Amino acid sequence: MLPPLNPLHVFEVTARLQSFTRAAEDLRVSQPAVSRQIQTLENFFGFRLFERDKLGIRLTPEGEELQRQISPAFRVIETVTQRLVASGKSEPLRLRVYTTFAAKWLIERLPSFYAAYPGIRLSISNAVAPVDFEKEKVDLAIQFGGGKWPGVESELLFRDLLQPVCSPTLRRKANLHSIDDLKRVPMLHSHYRRTDWADWLMACNRLDLLNDAGISFPSSVLTYQAATEGVGVAIGQLHLLRNELRDGSLVTLFEQPLERPLAHYAVWPKNRPLPKKARSFLAWLRSRMSDFQR
Amino acid sequence: MLPPLNPLHVFEVTARLQSFTRAAEDLRVSQPAVSRQIQTLENFFGFRLFERDKLGIRLTPEGEELQRQISPAFRVIETVTQRLVASGKSEPLRLRVYTTFAAKWLIERLPSFYAAYPGIRLSISNAVAPVDFEKEKVDLAIQFGGGKWPGVESELLFRDLLQPVCSPTLRRKANLHSIDDLKRVPMLHSHYRRTDWADWLMACNRLDLLNDAGISFPSSVLTYQAATEGVGVAIGQLHLLRNELRDGSLVTLFEQPLERPLAHYAVWPKNRPLPKKARSFLAWLRSRMSDFQR
DNA sequence: TTGTGGCCATAACAAAATATCATGACGTTA
DNA sequence: TAACGTCATGATATTTTGTTATGGCCACAA
């Protein structure tokens, strides 16, 4: 006769921290979630495990007994898991990721991947050009483009959405209000994305403003860095700049976002079976993406 | 870092029984369910825990290691749960159940209740008349009737559905085909359900066939028992006779089931809060009912 | 006292995990 | 070669778990 295991685990944490709220933080769920899990366990046992009163909770004698006995069991599971995962000497999953995507999206989310699949090691390289699976030892790639490449399966992650961005300071100082104001500030370009400015200006019917004389950087990451520092106005990929836009280190200009027929895609070779690790990564990527869409 | 616990438990059972199929039986789930749980765990660890080959499975070295380490942990959890549940000295939930319902529906399902709520003890009494919560020490009752009783909350379980039933042997021997054939066999009555035959015959417009001279029993359970033995034809509550109808010890006659405005209800007193145990029982009852409806 | 904030519970609803059924692949056995 | 036993997979349903919003209760501070 086993009790429901997830509630039991929640109980163990809660008993250790002496608080539903702190247990919720520890488990990264909401406080009501903990409350319900404990109730489930209490219903199973038929008696209360915590006494609730003003300002907090206390273990009942039964709860204390339970805690004392099961804690070591969880420690054991934890330890053996740790050890087995660490001993897993299998080959890492080789990812090749479009540079800006890696810097602005993937890296901050890697801890979530390791938590979900601690046994999968990643070897990440980055590049801008499309991958050639015949020449490069890569299992899965994330690249930017139109979505049609020969010999690969691809899955759309998100579309390219462009709009000029700069630091709030520059916007104020240079008093940037209408597109014409662009004449007064340096345009920041990226080597690998030479047409971004032209595309956007074209969509606004203001190709005349294009100014090749601006500053050019070897990577979008640097371009955005320069924009953040107030060096000039960059043409930004809005999806990848959400953090900067949210915390205010960058602001959008002129309210005319342009969506292009280009996007970030996950791609993998058509002619060999996708390794299981790669499927796991894809599954994780999809779930992170669906959070990201909102 | 904890692995997903339910998959871990499924793994433990599977490793012990050396078979997905047997583990599924043991856990009372389908074989694909086990297959998927194991996959979840394997994805988490990043390596296989079982080697699959012709005619079965074998633990991989990692799987064996995992099994060896976590098995004791589960044994501990099992033992302490067992002990705590046994020590739970709290008052039993007092149920008062309509006699036939208890015999033909509840009893065979009690193990499922104990499995879900091992900490809740039941004290079951049975009777036919509606309960009086003021006089009887009862938390929750299951009774039969129209659904309106003063001072109680009630929740419909299933409606009353009547049709004549007898043993297959009697049907053959007495050659029972049309309603008129009822003249040739004893009608079996229940003391507490005197109008069942009359109600059914009335609905068929054949009240003339009513024969008070048949045999009368002090409980429907005995009436059905007599019908099973081939003593005569009883007027059966189809929902409560499903087992008998399925295994062929009783058969229905004349294809004219009658649904009446009476039903089995769960009832509890309006004026005091329903104890938590009783809520658990109700929750269980609802879930068993929704299975039963199909 | 009257906010204000910390704590847990509950209801309504959304999302995720888990189960099922139906079926397939593959090897064994009669 | 057909029938069976084993595990895997796709489509789909169900159950479990989680979230947000809200409420009650108490303590503490203004």
Task: Give me some keywords for this one.
homodimer; 294 residues; alpha/beta; Arc Repressor Mutant, subunit A; D-Maltodextrin-Binding Protein, domain 2; 10 helices; 11 strands; elongated; DNA-binding
Low-confidence stretches of chain A: none
The CATH topology of the largest domain in chain A turns out to be: D-Maltodextrin-Binding Protein, domain 2
| Shape, principal axes of CA atoms of chain A | elongated
Element order of chain A: H for helix, E for strand: HHHEEHEHEEEHEHEHEHEEH
Strand content of chain A: 15-25%
Task: Give the assembly state of these chains.
Answer: homodimer
End-to-end separation of chain A: 43 Å
Number of strands of chain A: 11
Q: Short description, anyone?
A:
The structure is a homodimer of 294-residue chains. With 294 residues, chain A is of the alpha/beta class.
